């Protein structure tokens, strides 16, 4: 009898989340577990050739082996660069006077303001 392991496969959209527990033979890879979960049929937009996947929030390859209890996560592509978003937010805070231009922290109310 072949030993099997249980893993979870997760995929989330803004309006719908899918979490499927599957049993696969020991030594199976991520791709086999995703195919066994049926999520590709449920979400036809998934293309495993281009989609990034991970195990417990760590990026992994489709051919990586699984262990019992692993949680496979299928990641969606980012719609915005997180660095650019933070940069814009910081610039806006400086413009509005909510952040110090030099340190980026909150302005010190005791520090005298310089006249330009």
Write the layout of secondary structure elements.
Blueprint: E1 4-12, E2 17-25, H1 30-37, H2 39-42, E3 53-55, E4 58-60, E5 71-74, H3 82-95
Parallel strand pairs: 1-5
Antiparallel strand pairs: 1-2, 3-4, 3-5
Summarize the structure.
The protein is an alpha+beta fold and 116 residues long. Helices cover 22% and strands 24% of the residues.
Describe this structure in words.
The chain is an alpha+beta fold and 116 residues long. It has two domains: 4-74, Beta-grasp domain (Ubiquitin-like (UB roll)); 78-106. The chain has helices at 30-37, 39-42, 82-95, and strands at residues 4-12, 17-25, 53-55, 58-60, 71-74. The chain has a five-stranded mixed beta sheet with strand order 2-1-5-3-4, covered by helices on one side. The longest helix is centred in the last third of the chain and has 14 residues, at 82-95. It is elongated, with a radius of gyration of 23 Å. The relative contact order is 0.16. The mean pLDDT is 83.
